[in-house]
Amino acid sequence: xxxxxxxxxxxxxxxxxxxxxxxxxxxxxxxxxxxxxxxxxxxxxxxxxxxxxxxxxxxxxxxxxxxxxxxxxxxxxxxxxxxxxxxxxxxxxxxxxxxxxxxxxxxxxxxxxxxxxxxxxxxxxxxxxxxxxxxxxxxxxxxxxxxxxxxxxxxxxxxxxxxxxxxxxxxxxxxxxxxxxxxxxxxxxxxxxxxxxxxxxxxxxxxxxxxxxxxxxxxxxxxxxxxxxxxxxxxxxxxxxxxxxxxxxxxxxxxxxxxxxxxxxxxxxxxxxxxxxxxxxxxxxxxxxxxxxxxxxxxxxxxxxxxxxxxxxxxxxxxxxxxxxxxxxxxxxxxxxxxxxxxxxxxxxxxxxxxxxxxxxxxxxxxxxxxxxxxxxxxxxxxxxxxxxxxxxxxxxxxxxxxxxxxxxxxxxxxxxxxxxx
Length: 422
Known about the structure:
The relative contact order is 0.13. The two termini are 34 Å apart. A hairpin with a 2-residue loop joins strand 10 (135-142) and strand 11 (145-156). This protein is of the alpha+beta class. The chain folds into three domains: 5-72 and 100-165 and 268-314, FAD/NAD(P)-binding domain (3-Layer(bba) Sandwich), CATH 3.50.50.60; 73-99 and 174-261, D-Amino Acid Oxidase, Chain A, domain 2 (2-Layer Sandwich); 320-420, no CATH class. 33% of the residues lie in helices and 25% in strands. The strands form four sheets. Strands 1, 2, 8, 9, 10, 11, 20 and 21 form an eight-stranded mixed sheet that branches. Strands 5, 6, 13, 14, 15, 16, 17 and 18 form an eight-stranded mixed sheet that branches.
C-alpha cells in the first residue's frame, strides 16, 4: 500500500491564487504541496494587472523577478467611456499597472514557490478526495504514478472553470467575452477601452507581440442569427468602433474564443478544512481589470484564516467568520463599483446590456459601497433571524440590490437552507 506523504496544506491549482497561497504558507513555516493538472507554460486570460498588484508581489517576495521579466509597464490608455470623444489617460493618472504574458507570469510564480520548498506535483490530477480523523486524503495521479497525500487543510484554487452552477451565485448580469490576439503592423501602442451599444471592448499591447482584444457582451448578442462564426462577430464589433476599427482587418493569431465572464460568489467557499481561493471563491466583473490582483489579495486574507485555524482548532468559528466577511466585502465592493462605472458610460443606457448593469442599487439614501458592506455585516449579525428561502430574481434584468445582498447571505450561510437543499 502506498505510504502517504504528509503536509500541513495541499493546494489544488497553481495559478496566481494557488501560488500566492503556497508562497505565504511556506513562509509561515508550513509543509505545503501544490497539485497542478496542466503542464506549464499554459496560456491564460487576465493579462492586465492593476497597479495594486505591486504591493502583493512585494509581500510574497516576487516583485524583483516580475520587474525583470520584461512585461509591459506604464501603458497610456485611450478611453471612449464617459465621453463620445476618446480621452487619453497617462500612466501617472492611474498608477503603474502591468500587461503580462500569463503563461510566463504564472510560471514565474510557480518557480518561486518551488524554489522556497513547496512540493510540486505537475501534471497531476486528483482522483479522490476524502476526509477522516481530522485529516484530508488526496489520491492523485502524477505522471505514471499514483500518490497519496495526507493534509490538515485543502485549498482549492481551481479557477472559474471548476465552479458548479449549484455552488455559485451570480452578483451581476450575465456576461460573455470574446478574445483573440491581433498581429500585424500599425497596432495600437496603448490600452484602449470603448463602450458600445451592446457591450464594450478592451485591448492592449501584448508582451509577446501583437495586440490582445477582448469584447464583452450579454448572451443575447451571441444568439443572433449571424454569429455562428465568432471571428465574424468580433470583426463586426471592431468595425463599428472608433478605437478598434483599424483592427477589423487585422490577422488573428489565435482562434476567437468565447467564455463566461459573469461575476459570482461561491456559497460553499468555506467548508471545514477545505477552503476556496481566487475564482473558485468569487469572480468580479472584468470591467475593473483587477481580477488577478483581487484573487491574490483575497488569498492572502484566506491564508490568515487558515493560519488561525491551524494554530488553534478552537478558533475555527472565528477563522471562518473572518474569511466569510472578507469574501462578502469583496463581492459587495466590486458590485457597487461596477454598477457606478457602467452608469458613467456615455451610451444609450436604455439598451438591455446597460440597463442590466446600471439600475439603481437601492432606494435608500446610503447606496455607497461602504453602506452596502455595512448591510452585509448587518445581515451577518442577524443571520439567525432570516427566514431561509431561495432568491428568484433574474440577474439579466436586475443588478444587485440591498435586498439581493441579504439574500446572498441567506443562501450562502443559513444552516436551514443548507440542510433543506442537501
